[in-house]
Amino acid sequence: STGQSDARGALIVLEGLDRSGKTSQSARLLSHLNGLGYPVESWRFPDRDTAVGKMISSYLTNQSQLDDHTIHLLFSANRWEKRSLMEAKLKSGTSLIVDRYSYSGVAFSSAKGLDIEWCKAPEVGLLAPDLVMYLNIPPEKAAERGGYGGERYEQLEFQKSVAKYYEMLSDPSWKMIDACLPLEDVEEQMKEIVLDCVVSCQKGKPLTHLWL
Ligand code: FDM
């Protein structure tokens, strides 16, 4: 194969605790890749614009109460409802920079006490990221960054527990980024890693599925 017909966009996921800098870095990576002429979109989960996303948003802002299993499945359903569009975008050559994905789903629900394998099950069959970048920051430091916004999970003790589950989920392919560094340094590191990934997907690296 020349590889040309298998060229596709890259599925790039940013993970990390609340206030680790994922959202600012997503924006910077988006404009970087755009500037280089690569088709790219920035996505995030939860996607609060869908019907399921509205239920999630109401839960996160404490306007509704849901059983832990129920909200877990809604977060997963929110990824499933975007799955076919995600695949179409990637196959058409558009790269996606995704702020949170299944790893947030499993880490946050496991931190509440749900069984980790039970949490992973509904994620099986979703597209596997080509790259996971973990913005690593001690929970105490993240909490100092201008404080939390007051959503349901933005509490230090809970974030500490989430960090432990992220560690359990991580594998050697994850790129660990020191999120305590200045924004610009973090950005430089991430740009290089992302570009490598975009290039390898352009060369036709096959798409795979969770759970890896
Ligand atoms: N969150 C996010 C989950 O608990 N499960 C999930 O599957 C996802 C994607 O939702 F506290 C949590 C993580 C965070 C909250 O995320 C909202 P943003 O990034 O602050 O919107």
Automatic annotation (TrEMBL):
Molecular function GO terms recorded: ATP binding; dTMP kinase activity; nucleoside diphosphate kinase activity
Keyword presence, Kinase: yes
E.C. no: 2.7.4.9
Residue ranges occupied by any Thymidylate kinase-like domain in the UniProt entry: 14-189
Keyword presence, Transferase: yes
Gene Ontology process terms (BP): dTDP biosynthetic process; dTTP biosynthetic process; dUDP biosynthetic process
GO cellular component: cytosol; mitochondrion; nucleus
Keywords noted in UniProt: ATP-binding, Kinase, Nucleotide biosynthesis, Nucleotide-binding, Transferase
Taxonomic superkingdom: Eukaryota
Pathway entry: Pyrimidine metabolism; dTTP biosynthesis
Family stated for the protein in its record: Belongs to the thymidylate kinase family.
Protein name (record): Thymidylate kinase
Shown stretch of the complete protein: 40 to 251 of 252
